[in-house]
Amino acid sequence: MSRHYDHLADVEAFATAVERGSLTAAATALGTTPSAISRAIARLETRLGVQLLRRTTRRLGLTDAGRLYLEQSRAAFALIDDAERAIQGQGGELGGSVRLSVPTTYGHYRLPAKLQAFAQRHPGVRIELSIANRNVDLIAEGYDLAIRLGDLPDSGLVARKLEDAPTCLVASPDYLRRAGVPQRIDDLAQHLCLSFLMPSTGRPFAWVLREDGHDRDWTPNGQVLVSDDPIGMVSLAEQGMGICHSYDFIVGERVHAGRLVEVLPQSRGRTRAFSLIYAPHRQLSAAARALIDTLSAS
């Protein structure tokens, strides 16, 4: 008796090659070799009787038939994922895996304690964690959950606010001795202010401040521009390179130890939100739902 679905590994190789952009990247993701991925795609094309990919030395291109087959294959794999999610956890101890994407600020300072509590409570669940300052595509990249910063666009995703994190300005005692202490927001224009470039726009991140009871956004035009990791600004500020804008939960210990000093404390009071997001149409596994509960707990 022949097996109807013994080619599913070849379908996965094809889909992974397209998603990763090359045979080599697909081989790395699937733990095999580029030649094995190439043979798998060739077998699939022979089985279907159509060409799925146009291969060049630099990139892979989908044919019309390949694009249609990829869309239908993704939908089929999503149904299998949903079937597995529906039954995970019904037998008692939770199992399976959860893919989570978080920004560096949250990943270094907020997530570890909560993740440790979750891991102790559910040792059978594997967490695949990405800590990076980019907005992943939950559906295309296969993430179950992501934590995002700030106001969220109307993307159709479900969002659950985790916290409103207070912000402040800080500098090192050495910098303030050299440059003086600003008294008002406008004085910041005469200081070295560390700018963080937003990954989505490449423009400096606006500092959220308050003056005379009114909210005021102030954009630094600093000598040093930091990209990718906003925690780097705190390290630079600690070395006396200027004033930076950050979260209380990041700089609080440094301020308490005297390595940093709060600047313009009368201008604090603004917060920025961290939210947990996930796709509404995908059935979450019991493990993912348990992680949502843990991350959402105060």
Structure description:
- The model has no long low-confidence stretch (mean pLDDT 88).
- A hairpin with a 2-residue loop joins strand 8 (207-211) and strand 9 (214-218).
- This protein is an alpha/beta fold and 298 residues long.
- It is elongated, with a radius of gyration of 24 Å.
- The longest helix is centred in the first third of the chain and has 24 residues, at 64-87.
- It is 39% helix and 23% strand.
- The protein folds into three domains: 8-87, Winged helix-like DNA-binding domain superfamily/Winged helix DNA-binding domain (Arc Repressor Mutant, subunit A, Orthogonal Bundle), CATH 1.10.10.10; 97-163 and 273-296, Periplasmic binding protein-like II (D-Maltodextrin-Binding Protein, domain 2); 164-270, Periplasmic binding protein-like II (D-Maltodextrin-Binding Protein, domain 2).
Nutshell version of this structure?
By secondary structure, the protein is α/β, with parallel strands linked by helices. The protein is 39% helix and 23% strand.
Individual helix count? 11
Structural class comes to alpha/beta
Distance between the termini: 56 Å
Query: What would CATH call the homologous superfamily of the largest domain?
Result: Periplasmic binding protein-like II
- What is the class of the largest domain in the CATH system? Alpha Beta
Question: What share of residues are in beta strands?
Answer: 15-25%
H-E string: HHHEEHEHHEHEEHEEEEHEHEEH
Provide the residue-averaged pLDDT: 88
**Sheet having the most strands:** 7 strands, mixed
Architecture (CATH level 2) name of the largest domain: 3-Layer(aba) Sandwich
Level of helix content?
Answer: 25-40%
Rounded to the nearest angstrom, the radius of gyration is 24 Å
Number of individual domains: 3
Shape verdict: elongated
CATH topology of the largest domain: D-Maltodextrin-Binding Protein, domain 2
Poorly predicted tracts of residues: none
How many β-strands, per DSSP?
Answer: 13
